[in-house]
Design a protein that fits this description.
Number of domains: 2
Order of helices and strands: HHEEEHEHEHHHEEHEEH
Distance between the termini: 36 Å
Number of helices: 9
Strand content: 15-25%
Largest sheet: 4 strands, antiparallel
Shape: globular
Structural class: alpha/beta
CATH architecture of the largest domain: 2-Layer Sandwich
Length: 228
């Protein structure tokens, strides 16, 4: 390992479980790369991802955003299109925008669509799907509440889901953020994860929690204190 990583690891006591606030502060302090590293939360859940009723996928509005402004695209018609524009959407359209997407032109980071446009948008599924940009009800991006959704996405709403190993990886801000803001963002994610616990999940739900910066070592969090 490089000297920077070795120095960072020495600041973390081996085998110790930290409080969430302590872990966030350590990760922030150990982010010494030449760029503004992302602080990430990693949560291993006690779920069986092979079962459809134990999938964990939802979204959360981070109180202090992610440090990156998302470009929001909206597929809507009539009044809903006007609402999206007033709410601050970066690009709004109907069939014309769908055709541009089919051709590969996608000037947005997230796409929102109203339910009545999904049939038209289906033709762009092969383009949007592989990039993870296809709107879906589970992600909260298929809705008639376009104005509210656009505002939330601009304010820092993010989607997350457990991977095939039952682990959730969520960015909670940048190393340049104040430690208290990072803590509040991480806390909001953990609270949301607890709220969407599958009813069929048995045993320990939140098994392990750790915090790390993009280039830094992980700091393990005491899950008992997180639950409290």
């Amino acid at each position: 390992m490089g000297k920077r990583i070795e120095t960072a690891k020495k600041a973390i006591e081996a085998g110790k479980l930290y409080t969430l606030k302590e872990a966030v502060a350590l990760s922030k302090d150990n982010a010494k790369a030449k760029f503004d590293e992302t602080i990430e939360l990693h949560v291993r859940l006690g779920i069986d991802t092979k079962k459809s009723d134990q999938q964990v996928r939802t979204n959360v509005v981070l109180p202090h955003g992610t440090g990156k402004t998302k470009r929001v695209g909206v597929i809507a018609k009539g009044e809903k299109a006007q609402e999206a524009q007033k709410a601050g959407a970066d690009i709004v359209g109907g069939d014309d925008l769908v055709e541009e997407i089919v051709k590969g032109k996608m000037d947005f980071d997230v796409l929102v669509a109203t339910p009545d446009t999904m049939r038209d948008l289906a033709k762009a599924a092969k383009v949007l799907g592989p990039r993870g940009l296809m709107p879906s009800p589970k992600a909260g991006t298929v809705t008639f509440e376009v104005a509210q959704t656009v505002k939330e996405l601009k304010a820092g709403r993010i989607e997350f889901k457990a991977d095939t190993y039952g682990i959730v990886h969520v960015p909670v801000g940048k190393a340049s953020f104040d430690a208290d803001k990072l803590f509040e963002n991480a806390k909001a994610v953990l609270e949301t994860i607890n709220k969407v616990k599958p009813t069929t999940s048995k045993g320990v739900y939140v098994r392990t929690v750790s915090i790390s910066s993009t280039m830094g070592p992980g700091v393990h969090v005491d899950t008992n204190k997180v639950s409290a």
